[in-house]
Amino acid sequence: MRAWQEPSIPQLPGRAPLPKIFDTASGQLEELEAEKEASLYVCGITPYDATHMGHAATYLAFDLLNRAWRDAGVPVRFAQNVTDVDDPLLERAQATGVDWQELAQDQIDLFRTDMEALQVIPPNHYVSVVDSVPQVAQAVEKLLEAGLAYRVPFVDAQGQQQPDGDIYFDLDAANALGAQSEQGWQLGQVAHYSLEEMLEISAQRGGDPQRQGKKNPLDPLLWRVERDGEPAWESPVGRGRPGWHIECSVISQTYLGAPFSVQGGGSDLIFPHHDLGASHSFALSGQPMARHYMHTGMVGLDGEKMSKSLGNLVLVSNLRKAGVEPVAIRLAILANHYADDWFWEDALLEQAQQRLELYRSALAAAAGEPDEASLALLEQVRQLLAQNLNSPAALEAVDAWAQGVLEGGGSGGQLVKDLLLARLGLAL
Ligand code: 5CA
Ligand code: ZN
């Protein structure tokens, strides 16, 4: 699928250190390996409520990582899915009386426009789940044959029990398989949640621990047999559609191999999506899914998580329509640390606008070759971003530089302009 236009990224003099990021699986800061090519997968949108500030913050965080790798001289292969067939999208389409495909298409277009406006580096592989159904079905067939998946009979609309039921992943069998190798998958290896927490969270995030006939209540759905009125595709495992986690396992493995460098998304994906996605990936390839798992904090509004179901969305497109410069939105988001939970408020935008004015005045005043202060800023911003992508501290360093220029003069404005564009995606 088409992604969006690549932003301009100037080359900076010298080289940044490889970044350290907080790895959810290891529970500590990890320095990323010096690879010939880094590989990044970031879970994409379910196209029905895009693009709110939470989405934008998550994609900006991984964009900072992408830029950190590049500035360290490591090229990046980046893949992202679009969950363009799933329950929340179908439910939204039904509730609003629109065709689910049209809803998805409109939302994907809107997302592309927002990402482009926010100067987010596009994925090299932007992959629709609908387009990936044959690969997913093939993977499900492989898991059935390996004894790692099983069918649960379902009762149809007429009350008949259908023998060819939905296909579930067998977590206990996968755990036993994983135990045979040091690198093998184990339940909870990404999330480290207790069983009670996993059961509770799974029910809130697309799982169905209550469903009768499953071997383990946490076993996730791999393939849903066709129901009346729901989209379905012909496949070797029967007519139906993919479950959720398997889509990201199959798409990441297809485009990035295994293990790839970093699996990413918001902290709402730690469990079940990334923990159980890793189980599917290991079962399919015998390799860990990823070397590292990085998660962004949740962005909320007025004390609640931002989500369509709560109706408290601040959309990038609405701010843009109201005349807010995209660079101000980007700056407002980057004033928060990616790993923190935080709340959107209009004051953030006002502060960002003041910062923009400060930066613009200082850049205009700092004509000429780089001086000591601008070269020191380059070094400082690189160091701060290498420490778990500390964008708030990096912006404070730029503030101090800009104040210094306005108060005492300075040069190297072009270098700082390039620095802001290359590392923070701020086009000034
Ligand atoms: N399609 C799945 C991933 S395969 C999905 O979670 N889609 S989503 O549209 O709900 O979210 C898209 C991305 O934004 C995910 O990485 C998710 O973790 C992140 N996200 C969603 N809501 C928020 C929020 N309030 N704050 C921060 N990130 C969020
Ligand atoms: Zn995903």
Question: Helices and strands in order, then pairings?
Answer:
Elements: E1 20-23, E2 28-31, E3 38-42, H1 53-71, E4 76-82, H2 87-96, H3 100-117, E5 125-128, H4 133-145, E6 149-155, E7 161-169, H5 171-179, H6 195-204, E8 221-225, E9 240-242, H7 245-256, E10 260-266, H8 270-285, E11 290-296, E12 299-301, E13 304-305, H9 316-321, H10 326-334, E14 342-343, H11 346-365, H12 372-386, H13 391-408, H14 413-424
Parallel strand pairs: 3-4, 3-10, 4-5, 10-11, 12-14
Antiparallel strand pairs: 1-2, 6-7, 7-8, 8-9, 12-13
Helix pairs in contact: 4-7, 5-8, 7-8, 10-11, 11-13, 11-14, 12-13, 12-14
Tell me about this structure:
- The chain has helices at 53-71, 87-96, 100-117, 133-145, 171-179, 195-204, 245-256, 270-285, 316-321, 326-334, 346-365, 372-386, 391-408, 413-424; strands spanning 20-23, 28-31, 38-42, 76-82, 125-128, 149-155, 161-169, 221-225, 240-242, 260-266, 290-296, 299-301, 304-305, 342-343.
- With 428 residues, the chain is α/β, with parallel strands linked by helices.
- It has a 5-stranded parallel beta sheet, sandwiched between helices. It has a 4-stranded antiparallel beta sheet with strand order 6-7-8-9. A 3-stranded mixed beta sheet has the order 13-12-14, with helices on one face.
- Helix 8 (270-285) links the parallel strand 10 and strand 11 (290-296).
- It is globular, with a radius of gyration of 23 Å.
- The chain starts with 19 loop residues before the first strand and ends with a helix.
